[in-house]
Amino acid sequence: GGDLDIQIPYKGNDEIGQLAETFDLMATSLKRYFDHFHSLAYTDALTGLNNKAAFAITKDVIESEVKMGRASFTIVVMDVNNLKTINDSIGHEKGDMLLKHCAQCMRKIFVGFPLSRIGGDEFCSIINNSIEPDLLIARLQEAAAEMSAQDFDTFKVSYQIAAGSAVYDRGTDTSFHDVFNRADQAMYENKKKIKGEE
Fold it and tell me: Which one in 57, 105, 138, 148 has a CA-CA gap of 20 to 30 Å to 162?
């Protein structure tokens, strides 16, 4: 029936026992094989975070909750500043290294929440409403600033993580996209503010 965790209890040394052992080994191998392909399908190869396909599944689940009137969530959208400069000046290999560094930084802050790479240098996390998003964003940007200072010799330029958030409002939001678009807009406002302060 597709359940690969079932073990055949027969342990005799006869042909049936050998057959049972062979089936158990085959089921274990198939489970590893399926788990590996599931990981490939839903994990971003560069950062190890969820990829766009995994994000789409999360989005669909939340859309269903919105339609049923029981959604409660906050979206945080993040973007890495100066990635293009690094790619253009010292190469895409260093740009990839930067994305990995930033993903590790995000992981430390968004513990327990889904975190996805949804574009080249754009990331998203869905958090619950018991957490104040501005506090997470402040912690993230503080950690990124420390990391940027440590990484200056590697990347030859400072970088930042711009971020914005939006809380689902049952009274005005009709879809996941309404909330995502507000978070995205808030992130772009933060990006402009950071660039103005450079």
Answer: 57
CB atoms within 10 A of CB 95: 22
Task: Report the DSSP pairing between strands 122-127 and 160-167.
Answer: unpaired
**Helix 92-109 and helix 133-150, axial crossing angle in degrees, nearest 10:** 140
What pLDDT score was predicted for residue 131? 87
**Distances, alpha carbon 37 to alpha carbons 31, 34, 198, in Å:** 10, 5, 43
Contact 157, 82 (CB under 8 A): yes
Residue count of the chain, please give it: 198
Evaluate whether 191 touches 183 at the Cβ level (below 8 Å).
no
Amino acid symbol at 189: E
CA distance 161 to 113: 18
Structure tokens of 136? Answer: 């997470």
CA distances from 61 to 13, 146, 177, 178 (A): 49, 36, 13, 15
DSSP 38-86: HHHHHB-TTT-SB-HHHHHHHHHHHHHHHHHT----EEEEEEEETHHHH
* Confidence check: pLDDT of 148 > 50: yes
pTM assigned to the model: 0.80
**Helix count (H) and strand count (E) of the chain?**
7, 4
